[in-house]
Amino acid sequence: MLILRIRQAETAMADGRLDEAYALAQDARLRAHRRGQTLIGRLSRALIERGRHHLAEARWAQAQADCEKAAKLGGNLTEAAELRQSITDAVARHQGEVNRRADVLAAARMQLDKGQLSLCEKLLAGTAGSTMRVARLADRAAAARDAAAHHLDRARRIVELGDWEMAVEHLAEARRYHPNDHAVEELAGRVIKALIEQVRETFAAGRLDRAVRLLEKVEPLAPDRATVAEWRSALLRCRQAKACLGRGAFRTAGEYLQSIAPLMGDVEWLSEAVESARQVAERVERLGGGPLSLLAEGTAEFPERAAETMMREPSCNKARDEPAHDTVRAASGGPTLPDRFLLHVDGAGSYVVVRKRCVTVGPISAPQRPDVGLLAEAALPVVEFARIDEDYFVSADTPLLVNNAPFTRKLLSNGDTIALSARGRLKFAMPNAASATAVVRMAGLRLPSGDAREVILLDHALVIGPGAAAHIRMDALTAPIVLHVHDGRLVCRSGPEVIVGDHALGHGRGIPLDAHVRIGGASFTMTGMPQG
């Protein structure tokens, strides 16, 4: 039987069936037989030779298996040890090449995301072999280059027609796909120069509203250019001058305008405005320093008594029996309104209300805690909404995408969208043209305050009512309810009676916190929020 087994193994090996011969050679009796020992030596070297062939074809697992079989049969053969080392070196080289290719692909992807299309394509060209990932990256780079070329071509045609503003949109798209294209930058420079000149012309003509709109067109293309920064500063000082005029600070208004006069050159209306502000300031100062100044001593209480006398005039509401001076005292009563509070309106939802002029919104885990914290990753930017007169500006330390265009500071308009991340967005709204109160709605972001989804930036008035002009929309109401901030308190001066609990509060009296309030068909509760 042993001789038969040896013959079977020899026949299998002669036919190239080395695995079958290896299985037959496992018999211990065969190993003890002289003819069997000769067979094992030949079989071991045949396995080593087949392993070398597998190694040459990069079949690492099969080569390793043959090497192990040869070592098990023949013991510590030199050929087996050499084959094992060759396999180890080949696998290490292959793994190194795989890692290098992965690094190159990662670098190419990063350059593609940065818009460095030429560098991305150069990296991909140097990658040995063609894989699906290489092909996908190459296709993305080619598509980005084609898209940039398309938008650049459209921008050139529009420039030929003289429509500089429309050209900005296509240049912004071309730059988004290929920000380092010299042709894009060259045309962008021409468009920026033309639009800045239009800003200068409209400013000189006194069309500041048009100048602001033109500058907003330029900013996405050149947010960091010195000329853009100069015009941004000049128009901001014009707004500050307007605000000073509204407060009666005529001399300060003139100083704001005077500060930009050297930059603007010979602008007729600006020179006249500076001179007019100076003359009005001098006349007001002369008026205040004349005989009226003699009333300053010994008559400090007179304005208060005069105001009280005016408030004692008969009320237009004849149905009310309480005297007018009681209404004056009531207006100063009630709790002081905090800077931040939650407003729960039955049938409408919950709102975070903030009274500050500058309000920060960002992750609750940010290094400097914002006024309105978001349940979001700490890497999201902290944005600031600043109310200046009746306008709102949004700003951040890093560029924000406002309506898909990058800005670090931008004057907001009703309906603007501010992206904090790929999915998280803030939508800015000023529903009522007669009020500077704004609403910031959340999309893909969450507030810690339960079901609150909107933030109200409260100025002086808050409208609850039907239609799109209300800050808090309740179409079930037949007429709007207007709440005013007066002497640091929230009051309802007109309209339906204010009911707190089961008792009438009285018009003009401060609405309390943590109480159920009913005004007409609306009911709500105000709750204070912790500071910090």
What's the SSE blueprint?
Blueprint: H1 2-14, H2 18-24, H3 28-32, H4 34-56, H5 60-74, H6 78-113, H7 117-125, H8 132-160, H9 164-177, H10 182-204, H11 208-218, H12 226-247, H13 250-264, H14 268-289, H15 302-311, H16 324-331, E1 340-345, E2 349-354, E3 358-363, E4 372-374, E5 383-388, E6 391-402, E7 405-411, E8 417-419, E9 425-429, E10 438-443, E11 454-457, E12 461-465, E13 472-473, E14 481-486, E15 489-491, E16 498-500, E17 503-504, E18 516-519, E19 522-528
Parallel strand pairs: 2-11, 3-4, 12-13
Antiparallel strand pairs: 1-2, 1-19, 3-5, 5-6, 6-7, 6-8, 8-9, 9-10, 10-11, 12-14, 14-15, 16-17, 16-18, 18-19
Explain what the structure shows.
The chain is an alpha+beta fold and 532 residues long. Among the domains are: 92 residues, Serine Threonine Protein Phosphatase 5, Tetratricopeptide repeat (Alpha Horseshoe); 65 residues; 191 residues, Tumour Suppressor Smad4, CATH 2.60.200.20. Helix content is 49%, strand content 18%. The strands form 2 sheets. It has a 15-stranded mixed sheet that branches. It has a 4-stranded mixed sheet with strand order 13-12-14-15, with no helix packed on it. Strand 14 and strand 15 form a beta hairpin. Helix 1 packs antiparallel against helix 2, helix 8 runs parallel beside helix 10 and helix 11 runs antiparallel to helix 12. The protein is elongated and about 135 Å long. It starts with a helix and ends with a strand. About 7% of the residues have low confidence.
